[in-house]
Structures are given as C-alpha cells and as structure tokens.
Amino acid sequence: MHVHRFEKLWFGASLVLIVAFIGTIVYGAVGPGVAMVGDDGGTIDPDVVANGNYERADNFRAPGVYESSDGDGVDVYIVARQYLFDPGTAEPIEVPRGAEVTFHVTAADVTHGFNLAGTNVNTMVIPGQVATFDVTFEETGEYGIVCHEYCGSGHHTMEGQLHVVAPSQFDATAEGEN
Amino acid sequence: MATGHPDDRATRSEEEYVETEDGTRRRRAFVDRYPDAAQIVRICLGISFVAFAGGALFGLIQALHRTNVLRILPSSDYYTILTGHGVLMVLVFTTFGIAGLFQWATTRSLGVSPPSSRLSAAWLSTMVLGTLLAGGTILAGLFDAVPASADVLFTFYAPLEAHPLFYVGAALLIVGSWLAGASYFLQYREWRSAHPDARIPLQTFMVLTTMLLWYISTLGVAIEVVVFLIPWSLGLVQQVDPLLTRTLFWYFGHPVVYFWLLPAYLIWYTVLPKLSGGRLFSDPLARVVFVLFLILSTPVGFHHQYTDPGIASGYKFVAMTNTMFLLLPSLLTLFTVVASMEHGARQRGGTGYLGWLKALPWERPAFAGIALSGIMFAAGGFSGMINAGMNINYLIHNTLWVPGHFHLTVGTAFALTLMAVSYWLVPQVTGKRLQWRGMAALQPYVWFVGMVLMSNAMHRAGLAGIPRRTAEPQYDQFSFQAVVGSVAEMRVQIAIGGTLLFVGAVMFLAVMLATWTLGQPNSQLRVNGVLPEPMSGADDSPRVLDNLKLWVAIAVVLVALAYGLPLFDMVADGIFVPGSPPVPV
C-alpha cells in the first residue's frame, strides 16, 4: 500500500494528539480528582420516590440536607419531579463552604437534569437510579439549579437555588430520622 | 470536468451525447443511462426536501421563540415544534437524502441498475409510511382536538410516553432503510458475479460500509422500540427501565451521526476533488477511513451518558478511549480532502502556500457549498472533542453548547453538503439544467454566515450553563453569567443566525423547485457525472480492505466488549426493573 510521506506524518501527529487527549483526561481523574457520576448510588424503586415512602428505600433518605455521619461533611438528598427540585425550588439548598457535600439525586416521575448553571456540577436524574457525587465549594455564593433535560410541557419552569454559606451560618435543615 | 489524465479514458463513456426529441444534442446524463435508479433518486430527494422545508420552518419558529423575538405559540407547544424539527431534520431529511445519494452512488459506480423494482417500491413505501405515521403523530400534538401527540423529542426518553403510532412510524422508517440497504447489496452482488476479481468501486465500498454500520447500530434502537416501547405504550407491559432504554437509544444515537456524516464524506472524497478541478489524493486511505468508522463508531455510545447514574465510570472510560480514536478517521479525512482540493486548485493554475485557495471555483454553488461545509465541520469537530472529553464534558453536558455543536456537524456538514451536491446532482437525475444559478451561488454563503452566528453564540451560551431543549432561556430565581460577551448579545446572534439559516433553506428550495418545474429536459446540461480516477488507485491498497465480513466481525466483537458488561449490569435485576410506568405528555 502506497502512503504518501505527508499522510504518514499526519497520521502520526493525529495519533499523538489522540493519546495526549486521553492523557489529559486520565490526569484530570487522578490528579485534580475530577470524579465521575458512576453506579455507586445504586437503584431505587421510582414508585417509592413518587409516594414518598423513603423508609422503604435503604439508600435514600427523605429529601433534605443532613450532616454526614462522620461529622465533617453534609449529605444532600434531592428528588426531582415535574416541575420542581425538593429541596431547591421552594426553598434554597444550603450547604457549608469548605465541606465535602455529597449529593444524592433521583427522580419521581420522568428523566430530569440537575446542573448548577455555569459549573461542572451536572448530572442526569433518571427514575430508578440515584446519582451520587461529591463537591466541595471553596467560596460562599449562590448558584442557580437548572433542569436541563426536557421533562414535559412545563420543563422551562423547573429551577432552583443552592446557597453556599459560611460554616458558622450553616444549620442542617433535616434530621436523620431514617 | 475531465482533467486530461489518461485514467479518464475509462470513464469517458459517461460523456456521450444523446439526441433529444426536438433533434438537439445534449450530454447523456445519469437519467438517460439508468432511468429507474434516477427515478428512485428523484423520489428520495423530493421527500427529503419537503421534510427539510418543514424542519426549517420549525427551526425558525424555535429560534425566534426562545430568543423572545417572536412568539406565535404558547411555550408548552414549543416542544411539539422541537420534536418536529428534530425528527424531520435528523431522521426524515437525512434518511431519504442518504437513500437517494446512495442509490445514485451504487448505480453510477457499479454501472448496474437496481436489482428489483418491487424491492425498491417496498423500501420506499415502508419509509414513506413510517414518516407519515411518526410525523402525523407529532403534528397532532398541535391540535387539541386530535387525541394523539408525540412531544417526546428526537431522543424519546422513557418514561415520557408518545402515542404508539409514533414508535411504530419510527420503526417502519428504519426497517425501510434496512430494505434499501438490502437492495444496494443485491446490486453489488449482481456486479460481483460479472467482476469476480475486481476491487469494489470506491463509492460502492463507501455505501456498503456505511450500511453495515447502520445495520449494527440500528439494532439497538430497534430493540428499544419493538421490544420495550411499543408494548409499553400499548399497555401490554406496565413499566420499562428508563436507563436500559436510554442506553439502547445511545447505542444507536452516536453511530447514527456517522450514518449522516459518511454520505457527506462520500461526496467530499469522490465529488469535491473533481469540482475543485482535480482528483482524489488517495483511494486506499479513503477505504481505511470508512473501515475505521465501521469498526469504531458503535462502541462509543456511552460518551452520551457520561453524566448518567447507574453506569460504572470504567465503562465510560472505555467509551471515551474509543471515542478519541474515532477522531483518527476524521483527521485523516481532513488531510486527504484538503490535499485533494489543493491538487485541484493547482491544476487550475493556483500557486503559493495558501494562494491556491483563490484558484478554487468559489462562485460555483456545488463547490462552494461542499467546501464551506467542510470548514464548518472542522469547527464542529473541535467542539466535539470537548464533548468527548469525559470530565470537561460535565461543564457543557445538555447545555446549548451541544446543539451548537451538532448544527455544525449534521446541520452543516451533512445538510449543506446535500444541498450543494444537489446543485450538481439534480440536473443529472432530472436531465434539466439548474435554474436560478445566481441564487444558488449565493445560498451556501447565506447558510455559512447564519451558522457562524448561531452556533458560536450557542457554544458560548452553553459555557454559561444555558440549557438546551427549553422554551424559556431565562429563569426567575437567578440569571446566567456570560463568560465572553453578554447573554443578550448571544440571543440576538441566535435569532439573526436562525433567520439567515431559514432564508438559506428557502433559497435552496426555490432553486430546486425552479429546476424541477421550469427546467427544460432538452437544454444542454452544464454538469457531467464523470469522476476522475484517484491519484493513488485501489490497486495500491491491500485487498484485505475489501473484506467486509472481516470488518463486520471485528466491529461486532468491539461492540460486545464495550456493551456486554454494562448491559448485563442493567438487566441483572430483571429487564423491566427498576421500572417506570408511562408518563403521557
């Protein structure tokens, strides 16, 4: 097979570029530790979520913000449904600055999205699945929460807020009765 | 235009002239050689253009609605229009356009007519019936009096539920395309029996590899629709697993973009060099590129699911690696296509490192459109590399960045290439001269400018976190912070860009309508169908490249490796569990 010299050079340069891209992503995962949404949140019966029978779910508490069991972070349990985030829409989610915030997000009806606008805090919210991921906010501030997956005719009204507050002002809103 | 190379002699016969009824002579066109195939091409392109007209109108309504410029519908109906735009553009316009292009390409390069007019009628009518069912159900959503709707967007994620006829229609459209592929393969078999030792002609090679890719990838969506969604929408099963059906969709959802793209590549490799005034640089490398797409395009679907819960990160990493290697055939194409254009420009007297660009026929609509679509595709390729990057993807997943990206790829690389090649091909399949050439010459530039405005603003809006697929770009509880420029300025660009794209679509459709209706069959065609032989012909390449069975086997093994374990994980707890009951829209 005859391959022109410039084609060979280009072929080689392309391969180098591709390997470099893969390298940057591997570095992002193991260096700065950009964690991915995986399957560690487990599954949940969408019926349980829709009916609010959280005592029947072993990996999902009632929606709210909890101090984590080891005391140095918080767990946020969020249910997305047509067309609100609970919590988030009716009242903002409050989390402390500097602590590891573990989000647990699931859906009660259809597929939704959960994105802190303009950041890489971004996950799909799929009925039957619990999306679990960790975020540490280094500064106080307010973020808008957008549902970015079409979820019905009122999709464009589905929004919420997340406030990052100073640790002294933080007060977990929910009790871990479950 | 023939370039005078000795290789042209083999194809010179395509330049013969025929007598018309009134005694004048005209160039013997494709329609004179293969009237049956030409009719199929005309029907396919005609339906494709009608779908394009509807899709373009819906696109304009959306662009003006979500930028607050003009609102003729309530926001809740926006999603009907969005579904219609998506389905008409990326299923109907593309599938029929591709079926027409492929019928032309196989017939021209094999020199054999389609094998069976009954088979041709069968695939055409199956595809038309599917289109009418799916399209009709979507449009019914605009009318409260009709108890059917399908506002579920192109991705139709369960548990949002459409009317069963929508799923049946989508399935029929795909089954029709399978039968079309069977027809191309039978056509190839007929040629093969007369040419037992010859290399597969390049265009046919491209058609067959693309159809094989299509067969492998549509299997996912076929299972999703036939096994899960149709019984579920009819109430025969109570619930489906949203993650599993979504995964089956994306198993098809990324390869389908190559089903749209590869016909454009076929034109870039085989027609663009000729329109540039030269010939293809390398036939062997073109074959390598298509084989790489066949092998690598299906095991990558998880890159649309980087942010999905329920899929282990390791599987996503495998898909990411495959996706990155899929850059290779596109980067090779970039080289070969540009090199072929440069060769053509130098044949036309172009000189200098970049000065040759001026020697290209930018005033000819077919050349200009195809070349501009290639430039836009390069930009779309770069934003696609961001999408493919597993962790940077989190910044832009499901934001306006994503439609910004695919309006450059399918919305320009495919759509503008199909429009541009129609300026060259429609005269050959109708025997009529292109009308309104001035408008045709301007049209690719209108599309180009419109797309530059719209897609750059969409990409930047995505970085600000503005979501895709929403009727209202602003929210009550917070506002978006633009990284560059302002949100208001992006909105203006999207509105102007969308309007220009609609104008470009109307210009194209006007030229086609004029050519079809006003063009005289006895006028002398300006174009001919001669495609010069590549500089490096098929004989320079190893014969193993033509071994399609081998490449399919490798592709299937790679699919099994990439999808076997994740699918097993999803169905281990039962194929309908965790299951969601339907939520009608």
From TrEMBL, chain A:
CDD domains: ba3_CcO_II_C (cd13913). It is found in: Cell envelope. The keyword Metal-binding applies. The keyword Secreted does not apply. Keywords: Copper, Membrane, Metal-binding, Transmembrane, Transmembrane helix. It holds the Pfam family COX2. Residues 71-176 form the Cytochrome oxidase subunit II copper A binding domain. GO terms for molecular function: metal ion binding. The chain crosses the membrane at residues 9-30. This is Cytochrome c oxidase subunit II.
TrEMBL record, chain B:
CDD domains: ba3-like_Oxidase_I (cd01660). Residues 49-518 form the Cytochrome oxidase subunit I profile domain. The keyword Cytoplasm does not apply. Its main location: membrane. The keyword Lipoprotein does not apply. The chain crosses the membrane at residues 40-61, 81-102, 122-145, 165-186, 207-230, 250-272, 284-304, 324-345, 366-386, 406-426, 438-458, 494-516, 550-568. GO terms for cellular component: membrane. Belongs to the heme-copper respiratory oxidase family. This is B(O/a)3-type cytochrome-c oxidase subunit 1. It comes from Halobaculum lipolyticum. The lineage of its organism: Archaea, Methanobacteriati, Methanobacteriota, Stenosarchaea group, Halobacteria.
